[in-house]
Here is the input.
Amino acid sequence: MYSLDQAPLIRGLIANADSIGDISSAWDLEQVLLKLGARHPDDLETARIFRETADRRMGVLARFDAGEFPREVIIGCYYQGGSANPDLGLSPRNCTSGSREMAKRSLAMEARTYYTRAVDIMLRNQSYASEDLPRLLIELAKSSYTYGGQKLGRTSLTYLLAYQASNEAPLVSRAETLVQIADWDLLHAVGLDEADAALAEYARAYDLMTQKGIADDAVRRIFAPDAPIVLPAFMPSPLEGEGASSGYVDVAFAIDKYGHVKHVKLVGSSEGTDREAAKRVEHMVMRSRFRPRLIDSRTADEARLVVRYPLTE
Here is the structure.
């Protein structure tokens, strides 16, 4: 197969194989699709192929993380750093057993590779208006944060900011991305000098927002909301569970200028609250890192808060 016109047919065959649980055939067809894309490295259709393959890898990883054992983990030889795709420069060593954590890292690295290739093709084609691009960049940042890739994660956020600027996104959206870059730098800071440099980035973003006339409530939502923002903000907050609410707990704690938590204490709860559930929320607060709180462009040395967190079923 040589023409990308054949990609929709192969894509349909993959979907059919998936629908009947024929994972091996779906995998083999996916490899054919990847080889077809490799013949056309600058085509936007190839970007789509890479993006969809990365999405599937992340889907396998999510299932693996949740305790399932997807067959793709064996078919792809992800144990011990292996991969069934020689194009990625990885040599399969053991396809049936090995380190679970290594398998997760291998899956994540492969997904990041495909996401990166998709982004590169879009940028080479000056496809700055593609609605796929910001989602790809956020997926890269999420994967880089969770499974390692400090430089790539920050670069993804920087590209996202450039995308927003080129498409004249609302100023508040650009400001939020700028603040997320500061979040990233704070989370990955080594030593106080780098941490202080991240705080200076927050201050510049705050000043920019006020100079551009962004509404005070938007500034407060980003820098000093009632419920502080768990870092990184692009990941689901561990303190905002999914499902129906079964009550609440009130937690008192302090956040220092670098977003670290101290003085955590349960101070109230809804009637009939399970003590173990309340303690889980308390422990999640203790393990979380929060965005520093800024008022008038100054970082609060210590902010004391009482926050009501929902309990979910």
In short: The mean pLDDT is 89.
